[in-house]
Amino acid sequence: MKIRKVSVIGAGTMGHGIAQACAQAGVEVSLVDVKMEQLEAALAKIENSLAKLQDKGKIGPDDARAALKRIRVSTDALEASQDAELVIEAIPERLDLKIEVLSRISRALPASAIIATNTSSLPVTEIAANTAHPERVIGLHFFNPAPIMELVEVVRALQTSPSTIEESVNFLRELGKQSIIVRDTPGFATTRLGVLLGCEAIRMLEQGVASAEDIDKGMELGYRHPMGPLKLTDLVGLDVRLMILEHLYRELGEAFRPPHLLRQMVRAGFLGRKSGRGFYVYDRGSGGS
């Protein structure tokens, strides 16, 4: 089955990025959020992203306009998803919330529809267990920014059928993405490795080993990472990283204990780029440092 209609639940950073990636590939997209103003803001960000791609010569003006026209917005998740062949959930990283939303949507979908969660660490098997057709549930962990980043981590729940994996991988290929398939374990593969590196970088900063700039420069120049671990934590959000670390600490143990500095910064409201301050200070108008 070639997937041509997708519903994306959640219009935040990941949600609107996923919607754009789908629309650019010729897929009709319903983008859903609880408030129309959030959806309007998401559309503006997508339009701005497409304009930047035009400026770089990566997409033509006709293709950009066509992609934008393929996205419709709605505050009604059930109505927007009823004819979807694939539903991608990209709401906040809370297991109870994901279960509540996807359980309700799953009962309004045909058995052939695939339900995907964009979680970076939460148990896909538990989410699947609370849906009408658990064999059609999968994890599709996109990376930020979703229209540009090439990798999607495909997470196989205990119940996920082989056909669901095959259809999902084929769909990602249509989006121009590459995929890795991982078993549903805490943190999967990429989050488990990524947050551990970020966690150690924060501990090093806390202990005065080096400055944030030099820790990041060491990984960027010495290991060819495109972005240092502290810059990346600012991009992801310190509150998001803390929530993931707390989950992995409970599941996997001491290596993932959140650093005290990270807890302090979150309490202070220093959440990274989105708040204007994290390990670096940002101009909130431009998003630059």
Q: What can be said about this structure in brief?
A:
With 289 residues, this protein is α/β, with parallel strands linked by helices. The chain has 12 helices and 8 strands.
Task: Describe this protein's structure.
It is a single chain. The chain has 289 residues and is an alpha/beta fold. The protein has two domains: 179 residues, 3-Layer(aba) Sandwich (Rossmann fold); 85 residues, Orthogonal Bundle (N-(1-d-carboxylethyl)-l-norvaline Dehydrogenase, domain 2). The chain has twelve helices and eight strands. An eight-stranded mixed beta sheet has the order 3-2-1-4-5-6-7-8, with helices on both faces. Strand 7, helix 7 and strand 8 form a beta-alpha-beta unit. The C terminus is likely disordered.
Keywords:
alpha/beta; 289 residues; 14% strand; 8-stranded mixed sheet; N-(1-d-carboxylethyl)-l-norvaline Dehydrogenase, domain 2; Rossmann fold; globular; single chain
| Overall SS class | alpha/beta
Question: Helical proportion?
Answer: 40-55%
Radius of gyration equals: 19 Å
Record the strand order, biggest sheet: 3-2-1-4-5-6-7-8
Q: Give the uncertain stretches in residue-range form.
A: 285-289
How are the secondary structure elements laid out?
Blueprint: E1 5-9, H1 13-24, E2 28-32, H2 36-55, H3 61-69, E3 71-74, H4 77-81, E4 86-89, H5 95-106, E5 114-117, H6 124-129, E6 137-142, E7 151-156, H7 162-174, E8 178-183, H8 190-206, H9 212-222, H10 229-236, H11 238-252, H12 260-267
Parallel strand pairs: 1-2, 1-4, 2-3, 4-5, 5-6, 7-8
Antiparallel strand pairs: 6-7
Helix pairs in contact: 1-2, 8-10
